[in-house]
Amino acid sequence: MSDGTPADRFFDAAIGLLQRVRDEEAEPIAAAGTLLADTVAAGGRLFAFGAGHSSLAAQDVVYRAGGLALMNLLAAPGMVGVDVMPATLGSALERVDGLASAVLDSSPLRAGDALVIVSLSGRNAMPVEMAMSARARGVKVIGVTSVAYATETRSRHSSGTYLKDHCDVVLDSKIAIGDAELTLDTVPAPFAPASTVVTSALMQAMVATAATSLAERGVEPPMLRSGNVDGGLEWNERVFEEYGDRIFYRR
């Protein structure tokens, strides 16, 4: 890490993490992208879920220019970002047993679909139960998490397991426990989290792999264009019309 400004040090830390996941997670990324492509080619639907700040990376691949039109956000009350008041309630809800199953019961998720679950720690009841319940319903699960948490924290799920234990594919973000890259004698706590940068990069790499995998099979990937370029809105409307039965964010 450089001895430069705090901004330099953060960028160095983030770039180092991105290089690690590029080099060390190449096979899981390829497997995750192939799983998504398999699901699309077989007529399945795609969903992404994250609680709190983990929801940011999930939302980043939904209704996104340059992204797969079939990726839908699986939302749980009080967990989509930090919009619930007080914000601490979202963290509390993530630890409630039974909530994930209730969310899945009221969702369109069904056997043959794929679900990407983003959870940095992977230790709370919500992501663990969601992965377990989804797989029991015949859904393929991709987990995006920091595997390090499973070695140095206790699970908050009654099973004693973590998100990583209930996935078909696991993408390890390599984020250190505590999610803060910088320390300074004059700052009383570690600071400058990089999980959103790295997790979003993993998600986009996975989607890029899925799009390429579909194209290699002769299947045109249902991609969205920016609505802020000429012809973009018309392009997207055609995609929505063709794949409307697998898109839920327009209903």
From TrEMBL:
Record InterPro entries: RpiR-like_SIS, SIS_dom, SIS_dom_sf, SIS_GmhA/DiaA_subfam, UPF0309
Ranges for domain SIS: 36-220
Superkingdom of origin organism: Bacteria
Family (UniProt): Belongs to the UPF0309 family.
Name of this chain's protein: UPF0309 protein RQC66_00725
